[in-house]
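Shipment paperwork, digital attachment
Item: protein structure file
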Amino acid sequence: MIMNNCMLPDILQRLREVNTLLATYKQGELSFEQALPPSLFYQDFNDTNILVKEAACLVRENPGELLEFSSSLFSETDKYLSLDRTPLQKVDFAALFEEHLKPFEFRYEETKTVATGLWRKYSAMSNRLDFLPLDAEEYKSLDAECSAAKAEYDEVHAHANLLYEEWQQERDRYFCVWCFKPVFLDVLVERLKGIAGSIISDIGRMKEGKP
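Attachment content:
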């Protein structure tokens, strides 16, 4: 199908997922996973200019396929607007986002604390070495311990860096949840419904030979 290489099928499927959530979700605890469909939908599709451009290309290549898509999109947007969205409007999406990030932050902070302790241990050994003669037996023994302590620190420090990157990547990936407000999605869906309706009307006029 022509639409395999564009965003149109994706937007339709994703809106269905949002509608399924709204139809099944009851007021109460919303999980972070449940908060993702509406938040990511708004993030990925709020630029409706992309949808309009793809529709303009498809209307020349396959108006019948575009009409089928637009009719389905109109139906899904209409369904969204008819569903009870009141429970969703009461959800604190920012709090859900922050709660989701806590385990990532905790793992990083815990490992960083261990790394800090290992660095202090290594630094103390290294400082003692500075006051020992190079040919002393104690120096040789402590030097080996110091090298082992440094290697242990390096390993834990590297792991802490990885955990920090993981934490930041998770934050950046899902920051849209923190920013999300259900009213944003309401406005977007209204806009999408208008676009779908306009496409249906335009194709209808094309079939009738009207400008």
